[in-house]
Amino acid sequence: MCCLVTISVYAAPLSSVARALQLQSSKPISLFFALVGTLNAVLWSGYGLLTNDAWVYAPSVIGTILSVSQAAVFFWFEVVMKRGGKEGGREGGAGKRPTLSEYLMLGTEEGGKEGAAALL
To answer: Of 61, 63, 69, which is closest to residue 16 (Cα–Cα)?
Structure first.
C-alpha cells in the first residue's frame, strides 16, 4: 500500500504536465516541486539500492522517472521553445525549433540568460 501511495505522490503532478502540453507553456508546472521530487526520489532510490530493499527503490526509481519527466517538460517549454520563437505558448511566433546541438550550446550564447532564468 505504501508503494502505491508513494507512486501516486510522484504521479499527481502529471496532470499539470498534461495541461502544459495542451497549452504549450510551462506555466502550469512547478519547477520547485519537480526538482525537490527528483532529489527526494533519487535519494530514496540510492538508499533502497544500498540496503537492497526493492520495496524502497522500486517506487523511488519510478518517482525519479516521473519527476525528471516533469522537469524536462518544464525546461522544454522554458528554454527550447522560447529559443525557437514560441514565447508564451500558442500566442507566440512560429519560429523554428532549435536542434539538439543548439540546445546544448545554450549557455555559451546570448540565449544562456534564458537557461539561467529557467533555473530560478
So the answer is: 69
- The secondary structure of 19-34, three-state, reads HHHHHCCCCCCCHHHH
Please, what is the angle between helix 14-23 and helix 54-75, to 10°? 20
What amino acid occupies position 101? S
CA distance 92 to 65: 30
pLDDT in tens, 102-112: 554 554 444 45
| Low pLDDT (below 70) residues in the chain | 84-120
Residue 81 DSSP label: I
DSSP per position, 9-71: HHHTTHHHHHHHHHHTSSTTS-HHHHHHHHHHHHHHHHHHHHTT-HHHHHHHHHHHHHHHHHH
In the Cβ-directed half-sphere of 75, how many Cα atoms lie within 13 Å? Answer: 17
HSE on the CB side for 37, CA within 13 Å?
Answer: 28
